[in-house]
Write a structure and sequence with these properties.
Blueprint: E1 3-6, H1 10-20, E2 26-29, E3 42-46, H2 47-57, E4 65-67, E5 69-74, E6 80-86, E7 93-97, H3 98-110, E8 115-118, E9 133-136, H4 142-147, E10 151-167, E11 174-179, E12 184-189, E13 194-202, H5 209-216, E14 222-225, E15 229-238, E16 242-243, E17 246-248, E18 254-255, H6 263-283, H7 291-324, H8 328-338, H9 340-352
Parallel strand pairs: 1-2, 1-9, 2-8, 5-11, 9-17
Antiparallel strand pairs: 3-7, 4-7, 5-6, 10-13, 10-14, 10-15, 11-12, 12-13, 15-18, 16-17
Helix pairs in contact: 1-3, 1-6, 6-7
The structure holds flavin-adenine dinucleotide.
Flavin-adenine dinucleotide (FAD) is lined by residues 7, 9-11, 43-44, 137-139, 160, 162, 198, 231-235, 250-251, 255-258, 261-265, 267.
């Protein structure tokens, strides 16, 4: 029986590729938005997720730029380093450009006989009656509004600004994040000559991004700034993951503040969980249908909720310090970060989520 995926973003395409690799037939319904590539966006994927992605989804090694160290600074401690993560010069995570990943997935899926692309997405349930399972990877389509509106939502009253810096050549494998008074600012290297920037700024829409970046940049000799983009930041957690044979997936299940770069990482872990459930069904000669939805929800929902809450806690933790106008929290974090056990635990969770 055919499976159907709604959405041709990173989530829909990665999931489709993993299903096709198992010999399953998949129809992907694309919306126009899926084909609008944003060149200013990059994504950090953790080491364990990369191993899984390269093996079970698609070999993307050529797209990756390795990050071997993460440094965290705070405006409140005169930009002093408060946390440092590294692992004997091993890769902690890698950065790649969203549109390069999306194009590679699209090109690869177009060559697959088991995969068909459909553009005429009409929202009549009758058009989907031949599918055993429909996996919805879009936030704003008919199904999302009708069946997946009950979410725990939060607006951060913030906007994330993204751009890419071109700079003079530098050994560039250290990512850094500064908790500024405006919000978290991340420098994410993508080559010796380019670094992507994500700046989440509270409450302001009209800002001079270039001036703000220059203010906090101590490392790069900037040549120019690429095009920039911005997103209103929200987080949400879906209460019920499925309706009949429609399973919600990706950002529709969990949307996070980007400060820890974990949104798509959570989705890769979900793909892994769904994939394991599918393997079990196939091994037992069973159809892939709506029965998998409840199992998937039971396995993932509590982990995802806990993880999202953890990211939100980090955001609120540093936000509180700005509200209190002191540096007690940064000083405590610096102390905690020096503890070897806690430092390794943070690294472990960022890499694997809540998986033993
Ligand atoms: C600025 C930014 C940086 C990110 N960096 C990372 C990262 O380094 N590593 C990682 O694993 N994930 C990261 N994410 C989350 C990741 O981009 C999404 O999970 C992923 O792109 C989902 O894409 P899609 O194509 O499947 O979904 P689509 O439905 O095609 O796209 C969903 C859109 O919503 C945007 N979005 C995602 N989260 C939020 C949010 N909280 N508020 C507003 N818009 C949002 C996505 O970026 C995307 O443009 C980041 C998100 C943002 C907004």
């Amino acid at each position: 029986m055919k499976l159907c995926i709604l959405g041709g973003g990173l989530t829909g395409l990665s999931l489709a590729k993993s299903l096709v690799k198992k010999g399953l037939s998949v129809d992907i319904f694309l919306s126009k938005k899926n084909l609008d590539f944003d060149s200013s966006r990059t994504i950090g994927i953790s080491n364990d997720n990369l191993i899984y992605f390269n093996k079970e989804i698609l070999d993307i090694k050529k797209l990756l730029w390795d990050i071997k160290k993460i440094e965290i600074y705070s405006d409140n401690l005169k930009s002093e380093k408060i946390l440092n993560f590294e692992n004997n010069n091993k890769t902690l995570f890698a950065i790649l450009r969203n549109y390069e990943l999306q194009s590679k997935l699209l090109t690869s899926l177009k060559k697959e006989k088991l995969c068909k692309f459909r553009n005429n997405f009409n929202y009549q349930l009758s058009s989907f009656k031949n599918y055993g399972l429909i996996i919805n990877c879009e936030n704003n389509n008919y199904f999302s509004k009708k069946y997946f509106a009950r979410r725990l939502k939060k607006k951060y009253d913030s906007f994330a600004y993204t751009t890419i810096l071109k700079h003079k050549k530098i050994t560039n494998n250290v990512a850094s994040q500064i908790f500024t008074k405006n919000g978290p600012l991340a420098f994410l290297p993508i080559s010796e000559l380019k670094t992507s920037v994500v700046y989440s700024i509270k409450g302001k829409k009209k800002i001079n991004l270039e001036e703000l970046i220059k203010k906090y940049n101590t490392k790069y000799s900037i040549i120019n700034f690429g095009t920039s983009n911005f997103f209103e930041l929200k987080s949400s957690n879906l209460r019920t993951y499925y309706h009949k044979n429609i399973l919600a997936f990706g950002d529709l299940l969990h949307r996070l503040h980007p400060l820890a770069g974990q949104g798509f990482n959570m989705t890769i872990r979900d793909i892994q969980d769904l994939s394991n459930l599918i393997d079990l069904k196939l091994k037992n000669g069973l159809e892939i249908d709506n029965s998998i939805c409840e199992d998937f929800q039971n396995i993932t929902r509590h982990k995802n909720y806990l993880f999202s809450s953890g990211i939100d806690f980090i955001y609120e933790f540093f936000n509180l310090e700005t509200k209190m106008n002191n540096n007690i929290i940064s000083k405590s974090v610096r102390l905690i970060g020096k503890n070897k056990f806690l430092n390794s635990t943070f690294k472990y969770i960022a890499n694997r989520g809540f998986r033993i």
